[in-house]
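Design review, sub-item: ligand-bound model
Attendees: FS, YL, KQ
YL presented the inputs for the SUD complex:
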Amino acid sequence: MSVTVRVPAKVNVQLAVGAARPDGFHDLANVFLAVGLYDEVTVTPAEELRITCAGPDADQVPLDRTNLAARAAIALAGRRGIEPHVHIHIAKDIPVAGGMAGGSADGAGALLACDTLWGTGASRSELLALCAELGSDVPFSLVGGAALGVGRGEQLTALETGGTFHWVFAMAGRGLSTPAVFREFDRLAQGREIPEPVASAELLAALAKGDADALAAAVSNDLQPAALSLFPELADTLEAGRGAGALAALVSGSGPTTAFLARDAEAAEKVAAALRASGTCRAVRLAAGPVAGATVL
Ligand SMILES: C[C@@](CO)(OP(=O)(O)O)[C@H](O)COP(=O)(O)OP(=O)(O)OC[C@H]1O[C@@H](n2ccc(N)nc2=O)[C@H](O)[C@@H]1O
Ligand SMILES: Nc1ncnc2c1ncn2[C@@H]1O[C@H](COP(=O)(O)OP(=O)(O)O)[C@@H](O)[C@H]1O
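KQ shared the predicted structure:
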């Protein structure tokens, strides 16, 4: 018997970053939107814990116990006093180290899949607490939709959305390390007063209305200058998307994936074609959101 869970990627439509905390994390106002690009995590009983991964970026995914999916299985089994003896297979379509929470998706997916396979019957709040232990973005991968994350991003409030938003994502030729981007944020912020991170009222209203133009006017990412500082060529990708009529162009989370908001599916196709022709990125994908979080298939 196997259990397969499908988990979406995310884009941060607002990422407001506060000053570094004593524990090294940063307080955030992190507005997540789940988009229709998915990893699938399948768990099957096995002699011992084993991980395999397939997909375009599979060679960049660690297959040992540092994999977030393995950590999720170990954490849940530990709570129940059982051995995490499963084969975890990840069918990976979310870019690795791309700022789209691919590893987090696999962590949330493995947790839900193992809970289902083992019949451990964890409550939603127990699953969310385990997710938060695995990483700041992992709780959102479980819940999906649209949500505001505060604290280090793990304390979620679901957000209303009044429609579907159409996005184009440009994958970069290499990854960016999330801790390195936060460190660069700190370096660039030296000597400057960092305001408390707060969610934008205009942005939340735009999401609630399903108004793409208003959302485009309100999106922001405080990590974008840091990502551009470490990966200056991303400016060319952003410019190519803007030139093709994207309503908004921004770095997704810590990057280096760039995200382009389009008015509708047709406009998204035009932006995608222009990005492909620009030669400024490795691959281009279209995805709409919000979509549901981790789902047992
Ligand atoms: C930046 C964001 C935006 O959604 O995502 P990505 O762009 O990486 O996908 C997240 O905050 C990433 O969340 P996640 O990838 O789960 O990070 P974690 O494993 O919790 O932390 C990795 C490292 O990132 C930094 N970090 C993360 C979250 C946070 N609020 N403050 C931080 O300073 C810390 O250096 C930490 O050691
Ligand atoms: N299941 C996983 N999938 C991808 N990366 C993983 C996974 N587990 C651990 N990692 C590690 O996490 C790093 C960040 O990956 P990822 O979550 O894809 O990016 P991001 O944090 O930018 O959204 C990778 O470089 C990899 O070393």
